[in-house]
Amino acid sequence: MPCKLAAGNWKMNGLRADLDELHKLVAMQPGPECGVLICPPATLLAPMAAIAEGSHVQLGGQDCHTDSSGAHTGDISATMLADAGARYVILGHSERRADHGEASSHVAAKARAAHTAGLIAIICVGETEAERDAGRTLEVVLAQLQGSTPDGANAANTVIAYEPVWAIGTGRTPTLEQIAEVHDALRAAVPDAGMSLLYGGSVKPGNAAEIFALDNVDGALVGGASLKAVDFGAIIAALDAA
Ligand code: 13P
Asked: Which candidate in 21, 95, 127, 163 is catalytic?
């Protein structure tokens, strides 16, 4: 059975002054079985690990290199993330695919590195608005899934996040039917039917419950609404109740 996961992606946001939000999350009820995850900028990973130690809140990175160490200025390895206290790493986010030209084959190599380092890879897929308008959503998403998921991926080491590019940070979400259509297709296509499938893109306290009520939605990957514990806490509670 897939387990429920509420994951927060802080993206390039967060200074030490924001560690207070993590203190608040740690003080909240434990939430769903697979737990609560915060993926902060790498600069906050170590201080967050100290705060979250022994709590229900887990930590993750937002990207990793394919190598475990070496001459790659500015990059961070999966081994380093694990060493700093991460349990997960987000890979192939559309912002990285767009800003850094990451192809699915590159994402798969990063996921392999994450698995080798003992991290759970959260592999992101999602169509652009033009692709949806052209009726290509399932084709694009399933091709990204196939190309980005390495051999050996299973429910214990991999989570899939469906994030329509046009829904990220825009306040626009697909209809529930559109989310269900993609998640049902992902469930049929993942190499291990027990993999958790997260929805991401403008998830908020006000729309979380109806999204979590869908059969093949096992949680969310939340951007903006994960930055404040009060909002993320409401999303976690909605997932717990689903
Ligand atoms: P928002 O929740 O801000 O739309 O971001 C979603 C996202 O990209 C999470 O990875």
From this structure: 163
